[in-house]
Amino acid sequence: MPASTDLDDISFLGRLSEALSTTIEEQTRDLFDAANIVVPVKSCSLLTVLGQAGEASAAELARALGQSHQLVIQKCPALLRLGLMTQRPDPADARRKLFSLTDRGREQLALLAAYRDDIAGIYARLFKEVGDDVHGLILKTLDALKKRPLRERAALENR
Q: Per-residue pLDDT tens for 127-144?
């Protein structure tokens, strides 16, 4: 098969990154089940930021996470349904809703905190196996893309 149609080609880096994210999510779910963690894997950072804030709007959570308001709003129904957080109208602005953790949410956050040490060790062993600090590489790549987006990089190449 020619390299131009090989889906593992570098030009499909976004697809490969998504595949890595999906694999991590699926495999982490198994670990969460064993640890009695009910938090959706992709909502852990949201729950963590809410725990740190005490109470926050979706916009405040989105800013803290560096995610879109829409993505945060999409995660909230599952966290509300699981009884991990509550929402109430903002007394100063009826259009805004304020979110806070429930007792169950704080219990789950404590389980997540204990889990973080375990997963850090698992990732460290994985990175040793693959010979790279994937975490550090992802952080450096994100930082580089924020400083100079692909569009600018393409423009430099085409000069």
A: 999 988 888 888 898 899
